Request: fold
Amino acid sequence: MLICVPEVLSKADAADFRRIMDGCAWEDGRSTAGAQSTLVKRNEQLPPDSEVARKLGGRIISALTANPRFLSAAIPLRIFPPLFNRYTAAEGHRFGIHVDNAVRGDHLTGLRIRTDLSVTLFLAEPEEYDGGELVIEDSYGSHEIKLPAGDLVLYPASSLHLVSPVTRGTRVASFFWLQSMIRDAHARSLIFDLDSAIQTLAERLGRDDPETVKLTGIYHNLIRCWAEV
Ligand code: NI
Reply:
């Protein structure tokens, strides 16, 4: 399931990120790639351990933990420190088809996660560049994602995906992974749909409506059944 979350960062915050990142030294993106993806990865990254990447990443984590739609869709247990990448048309940047590593470790913090979900948070507006779509394959076909600055997409880390060549301008984004409390993607999707329906009912009938309360109980009891914490 692909889930877009709008306005995780405000336009002002996204612009501030860009200003800060413009003044940084970037390195070859292959520094964090696995054995297969290093063959097809052509982009630049902020050094993952740099102070600026950690600071900006912390701001993203703060925004995520205050975002109800993100929390409902991901039910995150652990979030990997966000990384930042840049694809420039003049350099012919792209990222060919690959699958993300199943486990990621962060040697600075010792954090180790199973990558259930991959996240791309767009930091450039779609009008700033041509190409650069995130293309995700699932059993329903290929999906092209290109979102406004400040919006993110959550997608299964198990899926094959690519970033198409950037042919004009520069695509800037943050990307990272998370381990969900709900390991099974189907169960996680049911939980998200149930929560969405409960929120709509609560608006229509009130949070104290007896059936809404009962459904809210079922929601939490399903999480009790499935959560690994
Ligand atoms: Ni990837």
User: Anything to note?
Assistant: The longest strand covers residues 166-180. The pocket of nickel (II) ion is lined by residues 98, 100, 161 (CB under 6 Å). Residues 86 and 126 are 14 Å apart (CA to CA).
